[in-house]
Design brief:
By secondary structure, the protein is of the alpha/beta class. 15% of the residues lie in helices and 31% in strands. Helix 2 runs parallel beside helix 3.
Length: 605
């Protein structure tokens, strides 16, 4: 089918604002970019994004692949989104089925054929030619299935996916999705929302690589996981600065490999230098599989300043971290940016406005988003998407305890789901140097087993800081590296005399200054901000007042601050940009100049 014919069968759902990139979506080849920048094989892959068939059926149905479908849906945009071409809600009592015929040319049938999903929200079962080949639970981590055994003769194969997603009515992480959107809670996202793709690999292939920089020891620790490794096989890993090989090592099993990187070029917001990493598997002197990756030499840690206050450090130096709360939502694609240029835009503009950090709030982005942060030098705090909210009180001020339960009593099923997905997210994102901080909990949303989960997070990834409870709950003897206060609208900080000798002090959310821009709002009425203004001048003056207060707090011990937020989202009009990204509410040059005072090294002894 021609591209023109495919595009003629699809159009976005009308009725809401859209970004300018919506017009650039090609239904015949949406989001065609290579989806896995931390483990690349340039050849032998094929995107399956495009028009699929869909139907919504009662959850009680047997689970066999349907024979008939209701219409077309554009993958990878969630069914509730405008860009899906459908714009329907599924709900907990129904299941969403996808179906399409895929072409598997002979070039992809030599060796193994892997089917990859960037993300599917939430529980997915996968069928190839009517054979169930796998299933997965988790809305924010990628998964892969070997489908070789289910292929039939010829190039044409049938692929079906069954999805169930209870949104906020189930035990799973759902982020800010709710069945009835309002306030800070947004439209549900059901089903496939990241790239689906095929990849041909040999029978023995590089399944994953994990690398961790250590600038103090001037080395990169590497572990390579090879599927079906045979006795006598060798794993070769090498680090490169352009065309110059920096280090290389050979291993029989890929475990415990160390690459020396003397005099390393350190990765930072000012100098985001990235080394290339090459991995190969050799058998009897012949390379049978190879893949590429990259890494940045950087360190995220805390230490006391001369006044005995803990500070967040980057590469053993204090760098004040300032950035927006970034929800990562789109009026046309919901969880999914319309195009790769759109995905990159938010990071580019955040950098241009003079921020050096982004707090990725209650969502995980596609791998390419972190790739761009790595390239541009953007620090990232990564939240765990919340779920199973309610049942515990929010004690939002450190040192103040209500006496009511701070940890939610989750069911064993809910607790297991959360812990499994948090580990999967951390594994998936480990290699990105831009991520310098993990945030397991936010504002008591489903917060449970705080000490256990935070202690586990700290131990599982010692290379990053852990912000245990952004905005509370501050359980007694709060574990982790950071004490994080939320305060709207004006900036404040935890008392350094009470907390500064135990943890680094941050202002995890503040601001929320609102300005609705006519013609660029999700709805015509009911929009809100934590403090709203009538024009850009009033808005900037208040923002400038707030920023001018921060140097005093930095001197006293503040290590970082997060302003709410990058863009408007649905009825929230607190954004630096409107939801459609068409209007910047501030002067870019004035904002950039204003923010430079925050990075003055002389503020901190």
């Amino acid at each position: 089918m021609s591209a023109a014919s495919v595009n003629a069968q699809w159009k976005p759902v009308a009725g809401k604002i859209k970004t300018s990139w919506a017009e650039k979506v090609d239904a015949a080849n949406p989001l065609p970019e290579y989806p896995r920048p931390q483990l690349t094989r340039s050849n032998n892959w094929k995107s399956l994004n495009g028009l699929w068939q869909y139907t919504v059926l009662p959850k009680s149905e047997t689970g066999s692949v349907p024979a008939q479908y209701s219409g077309n849906i554009l993958v990878p945009y969630a069914i509730e989104s405008a860009l899906s071409g459908v714009g329907k809600t599924v709900g907990k009592d129904s299941v969403l089925w996808y179906n399409r015929t895929i072409e598997v040319p002979a070039a992809l049938r030599k060796g193994k054929l892997l089917l990859h999903f960037g993300a599917v929200d939430w529980a997915a079962r996968i069928y190839v030619n009517g054979i169930k080949v796998g299933e997965h639970e988790g809305g924010y981590d990628p998964f892969s299935i070997d489908i070789t055994h289910a292929l039939k003769k010829g190039t044409r194969q049938s692929l079906a996916v069954r999805v169930w997603d209870p949104t906020d009515e189930g035990p799973q992480p759902a982020g800010k999705q709710v069945t009835k959107p309002h306030g800070i809670w947004y439209t549900p996202v059901t089903g496939i929302w990241q790239t689906v793709w095929l990849e041909k690999v040999p029978a023995t292939y590089i399944a994953s690589v994990k690398h961790t920089p250590d600038i103090d020891r001037q080395q990169l620790d590497v572990a390579v996981n090879v599927d079906h490794l045979r006795p006598g096989d060798e794993i070769l890993v090498s680090a490169w600065d352009g065309d110059r090989q920096v280090a290389a090592q050979t291993s029989a099993n890929g475990k415990g490999m160390v690459l020396p990187v003397p005099g390393a070029k350190l990765w930072s917001p000012q100098h985001p230098f990235l080394y290339d990493l090459k991995i190969a598997v050799k058998r009897k002197g012949k390379i049978i599989d190879e893949a590429g990756s990259y890494f940045g030499m950087r360190k995220s840690s805390i230490a006391k300043d001369k006044n005995g206050i803990f500070r967040m450090l980057l590469n053993n130096e204090f760098v004040f971290q300032y950035g927006p709360l970034d929800q990562g939502w789109w009026p046309d694609g919901l969880y999914t940016a319309p195009t790769d240029d759109a995905l990159k835009f938010d990071i580019e503009q955040t950098k241009a406005l003079g921020f050096n950090m982004i707090r990725k709030h209650i969502k995980v982005e596609p791998a390419r988003w972190y790739y761009y942060c790595d390239q541009m030098g953007m620090l990232v705090w990564q939240d765990m998407p919340s779920g199973d909210r309610g049942g515990n009180v929010w004690d939002q001020y450190p040192g103040v305890i209500s006496g009511l339960p701070q940890d939610k009593q989750r069911t064993p099923e809910s607790a297991a789901i959360h812990k499994k997905e948090w580990k999967a997210i951390m594994d998936h994102l480990h290699n990105y140097p831009s991520i310098v901080c993990w945030v397991p909990f936010n504002e008591a949303w489903g917060q449970f087993d705080t000490r256990e989960i935070v202690d586990w997070t700290v131990a599982y990834d010692p290379s990053r800081l852990v912000n245990a409870a952004s905005g509370g709950n501050y359980v007694k003897g709060l574990p982790g590296h950071i004490m994080d206060l939320h305060r709207y609208p004006a900036p404040m900080m935890p008392d350094p005399e009470m907390y500064g000798n135990k943890q680094a002090l941050v202002l995890g959310e503040f601001g929320g200054l609102g300005l609705p821009v006519e013609g660029h709002t999700w709805v015509s009425s009911g929009n809100w901000g934590y403090q709203s203004f009538k024009n850009p001048e009033e808005l900037y003056n208040k923002y400038e007042e707030f920023i001018n207060r921060l140097p005093v707090l930095i001197k006293k011990g503040l290590s970082a601050a997060v302003y709410t937020q990058t863009t408007d989202v649905e009825v929230e009009i607190n954004g630096l940009y409107t939801y459609d990204r068409k209007v910047l509410k501030f002067s870019k040059d004035k904002m950039f100049r204003l923010h430079q005072q925050l990075y003055d090294r002389s503020l901190v002894p």
